[in-house]
From TrEMBL:
<keyword id="KW-0560">Oxidoreductase</keyword>
<dbReference type="InterPro" id="IPR029752">
    <property type="entry name" value="D-isomer_DH_CS1"/>
</dbReference>
<dbReference type="Pfam" id="PF01842">
    <property type="entry name" value="ACT"/>
</dbReference>
<dbReference type="InterPro" id="IPR036291">
    <property type="entry name" value="NAD(P)-bd_dom_sf"/>
</dbReference>
<comment type="pathway">
    <text>Amino-acid biosynthesis; L-serine biosynthesis; L-serine from 3-phospho-D-glycerate: step 1/3.</text>
</comment>
<dbReference type="GO" id="GO:0051287">
    <property type="term" value="F:NAD binding"/>
</dbReference>
<dbReference type="InterPro" id="IPR029753">
    <property type="entry name" value="D-isomer_DH_CS"/>
</dbReference>
<dbReference type="GO" id="GO:0004617">
    <property type="term" value="F:phosphoglycerate dehydrogenase activity"/>
</dbReference>
<dbReference type="InterPro" id="IPR045865">
    <property type="entry name" value="ACT-like_dom_sf"/>
</dbReference>
<keyword id="KW-0520">NAD</keyword>
<keyword id="KW-0809">Transit peptide</keyword>
<dbReference type="Pfam" id="PF02826">
    <property type="entry name" value="2-Hacid_dh_C"/>
</dbReference>
<keyword id="KW-0934">Plastid</keyword>
<dbReference type="InterPro" id="IPR006140">
    <property type="entry name" value="D-isomer_DH_NAD-bd"/>
</dbReference>
<dbReference type="Pfam" id="PF19304">
    <property type="entry name" value="PGDH_inter"/>
</dbReference>
<dbReference type="InterPro" id="IPR045626">
    <property type="entry name" value="PGDH_ASB_dom"/>
</dbReference>
<comment type="similarity">
    <text>Belongs to the D-isomer specific 2-hydroxyacid dehydrogenase family.</text>
</comment>
């Protein structure tokens, strides 16, 4: 092997060691994920990293000085900018633990190479693995290439057969996913949400769209929607929850049932603005464990009339609210009435006088038409007073069946909603 290609095996236990990832973008987060799997404690420094992304992987975001002073291993994954040029210099090396090991697969210029040589010679840095250099390819007499405690590789990762095959597969999978309407973590013209955060938010993304669809179908006429308020309740801090994807999916749910427009993550905000719909977002910070990203999502539509009066809140807006239970999105409130139904298939909402036999009567009508009931929930003000019955159905009832339900004496109003 040439000195440029050489590598050597050095046995170092990783379990319990601290890895500092400098630059917590796509590559840095993937390195962090794998290091966690090897039993390492991982910290990261990146002034632009979202706390929810780090939390989803189990990584602690820290300051630059804290990262370099506490790490046993330092892995660099940052771009070369004026602020990162020679960020690892004599001053930085002086703050590191003696015997630290450094991996640089970012850009050569982020390390002061002369300073690194001095740190290696003094023993501050025990070993370094470098894929990049200030000058590429480096000269034959480059001190780092010749150093016995440095392993070097030729910065050709993207040009290998394995990398080209991997990129081709990733592109094909992304295209197939996009054609299926799935969310993409790598789209450059959509909200950039890391894959791990997207996975955590997935059931809430479904819930957001369904709440939008429910809310707009409760509007008499539909097209009069101009002001929508969305409330997110979470035990996580305001900076730990990126709601752009959720807002886009609520917009999709609001617009698609009343238009021929296909709404996606890219055009959601523009489409809402084009139709004069203003979406105001509010966050409620709750006490408790931040294990789940959200406790509930609430959607309110103001200044409209409702085809189902019970969906109106005390302040005069159409209001629906939902939660994720055991990974399944549920509708949990309509107006001021508590319900509990999975948001799948279709939904019949009935306001009725709370009395015995109502569930059986409605269920019998649906059963006679071979319509399967998936969920049923009743929320009431008080016994024998008013109640709202939410019925999930797998098939769409015909007009005759809905008319029979409406003719039940105790039912005061009802509405059928497609989910």
């Amino acid at each position: 092997m040439s000195k440029w290609q050489r590598s050597k095996y050095v046995g170092v236990s990783l379990v319990g060691k601290t890895l500092a990832v400098l630059g917590f973008g796509k590559v840095g987060s993937e390195v962090a994920r794998r290091a966690k799997g090897l039993g390492m404690h991982v910290i990261a420094h990146d002034p632009y990293a979202a706390a929810d992304r780090a939390r989803a992987i189990g990584v602690e975001l820290v300051t630059f000085n804290e990262a370099i002073s506490t790490a046993d291993f330092i892995s660099l994954h940052m771009p070369l900018t004026p602020s990162t040029s020679k960020i690892l210099n004599d001053e930085a090396f002086a703050k590191m633990k003696k015997g630290v090991r450094i991996v640089n697969v970012a850009r050569g210029g982020v390390i002061d190479e002369e300073a690194l040589v001095r740190a290696l010679d003094s023993g501050i840095v025990a070993q370094a693995a470098l894929d990049v250099f200030t000058e590429e390819p480096p000269s034959a007499d480059n001190k780092l290439v010749l150093h016995e405690n440095v392993t070097v590789t030729p910065h050709l990762g993207a040009s290998t057969m394995e990398a080209q095959e991997g990129v081709a597969i990733e592109i094909a999978e992304a295209v197939v996913g996009a054609l299926k309407g799935e969310l993409a973590a790598t789209a450059v013209n959509a909200p950039m949400v890391p894959a791990e955060v997207l996975s955590e938010l997935a059931p809430f993304v479904v819930l957001a769209e369904k709440l939008g669809r429910l809310a707009v179908q409760l509007v008499a006429g539909g097209s009069g929607v101009k002001l929508v308020k969305v409330t997110y309740a979470s035990a996580r801090g305001p900076d730990d929850l990126d709601t752009r994807v959720l807002r886009a999916m609520i917009t999709k749910g609001l617009i698609e049932p009343i238009s021929s427009v296909f709404v996606n993550l890219v055009n959601a905000d523009f489409t809402a603005k084009q139709r004069g719909i203003r979406i105001a977002e509010e966050r409620i910070v709750l006490d408790g464990s931040p294990e789940n990203p959200l406790e509930f999502i609430q959607v309110q539509i103001a200044n409209v009339e409702s085809k189902f009066a019970s969906a109106m809140s005390e302040t005069g807006e159409i209001r629906v609210e939902g939660r994720v239970k055991d990974g399944i999105p549920h509708l949990t409130k309509v107006g001021s009435f508590q319900v509990d139904v999975s948001v799948e298939g279709s939904l019949i909402l009935c306001r009725q006088v709370d009395q015995p036999g109502m569930i059986g009567t409605v269920g019998t009508i649906l059963g006679e038409q071979n319509i399967n009931v998936s969920f049923m929930s009743v929320g009431r003000v008080a016994p024998r007073k008013h109640a709202v019955m939410a019925i999930g159905v797998d098939e769409e009832p015909d007009k005759e069946t809905l008319t029979k339900i409406g003719e039940i004496p105790a039912i005061e109003e009802f509405v059928f909603l497609k989910l």
